[in-house]
Design a protein that fits this description.
single chain; 351 residues; TIM Barrel; 2 domains; 8-stranded parallel β-sheet; two-stranded antiparallel ribbon; 10 strands; 13% strand; Metal_Hydrolase; hydrolase
């Protein structure tokens, strides 16, 4: 285990943290999201079954989880490879691939993509939300779950010798289920053994991140090595967000490029625009949190790819960074968010 100290573990092996460069900390390159299919209204069932075409792309953009083919990102390896080359050309260096057990993790494909593009790819260990937990997972003890997670980092995932370099995204629902609580406790135990980074997918309620952090803390997690994802759809109240920030984990805004009229998973949420995300990040910087902010796109459906008229993995570098500069966020602070903070988070702690 000491060999991991001070290193970052990619699907191609250990690298020095300084090799990562600009890093997207929450993406998917190959996965299935069939588990989260949202049946459309009866008058739109034909749209749900059809192929992806120019004439239905706007409907798919607004109803991404009601189009069956859109949920099968694993079918797009060639398009993803092309996009990773665009990402690299735009100055990108590394991607944290957050696909865990339950949504068709495929570490062999991740290794192939890393070899063919030269982009550093860090794979995720652990389990997604309760709805994807198998009967076997549900009856496991915290100790058994911990052993699986540790093994995916030390030995390899899914019957391969390809090792994960982060725990997560660990899936949580609202309300949190017993099975998810055990996975969180196992995550904390594995992290305390390994000194590794952790990333969490919180339930869709503003109290969910607080509950999760409390459980992780009680189980011995290192919050300074832990990321709370999807804050752009979870905590909207500024006072509550700053209260959460005091707990010490990383604050991730990772839905850049997702601008929806109606958020299918939680109709109460008005999904922010990218301009609003930038304004929120600037507020967090002004409040002293520049060392704790991370950014990404969380691409997990086909319509987000450039091949289907989407923004792709380079959107932040090509479009968001220039707008951040216009809004008075300095290049030094942008580099802190896109280079330095990911590097610090992904480096295994010295032990």
């Amino acid at each position: 285990m000491s060999s991991l100290s001070g290193k970052v573990q990619t699907v191609l092996g250990l690298v020095e943290p300084t090799q990562l460069g600009c890093t997207m900390t929450h993406e998917h390159l190959t996965m299935s999201y069939k588990c989260c299919f949202v049946p459309p209204s009866s008058d739109q069932e034909a749209l749900s079954e059809g192929h992806m075409e120019m004439k239905n792309l706007f409907w798919i953009k607004q109803n991404p989880y009601s189009h069956k083919e859109n949920l099968l990102l694993y079918q797009e390896t060639d398009a993803v490879k092309e996009e990773l080359l665009h990402f690299k050309a735009a100055g990108g260096g590394a991607i944290v691939e957050n696909t865990t057990t339950g949504i068709s993790r495929d570490v062999k494909t991740l290794k192939k993509l890393a070899e063919e593009t030269g982009v550093h790819i860090i794979a995720g260990a652990g389990f997604y939300v309760d709805g994807t937990h198998s009967p076997e997972i549900r009856v496991m003890s915290v100790e058994q779950l911990t052993d699986i997670i540790v093994n995916e980092i030390l030995s390899g995932a899914d019957g391969t010798n390809i090792k994960c370099g982060v725990i997560g995204e660990i899936g949580c629902s609202w309300p949190l289920t017993e099975s998810e609580k055990k996975v969180l406790q196992a995550t904390a135990h594995a992290q305390s053994q390994l000194g590794c980074p952790v990333i969490i997918h919180p339930g869709r309620h503003s109290d969910a991140p607080f509950q999760i952090i409390r459980i992780l803390q009680e189980a011995g997690a290192d919050l300074s090595k832990t990321v709370m994802s999807h804050l752009d759809r979870t905590i909207f109240d500024e006072k509550k967000l700053l209260e959460f920030g005091k707990l010490g984990c990383y604050l991730e805004y990772d839905l850049f490029g997702t601008e929806l009229l109606n958020y299918q998973f939680n109709p109460d949420v008005d999904m922010p625009s990218d301009n609003e995300r930038i304004a929120r990040i600037r507020m967090l910087i002004d409040e002293g949190y520049e060392d704790r902010i991370l950014m990404a796109h969380d691409i997990h459906t086909k319509n987000r790819l450039m091949n289907y008229g989407g923004h792709g993995y380079s959107h932040i570098l090509k479009n968001i960074v220039p707008k951040m500069l216009i809004r008075g966020i300095s290049q030094n602070r942008i580099d802190k968010i896109l280079v330095e903070n990911p590097k610090q988070w992904l480096t295994f702690k010295y032990r």
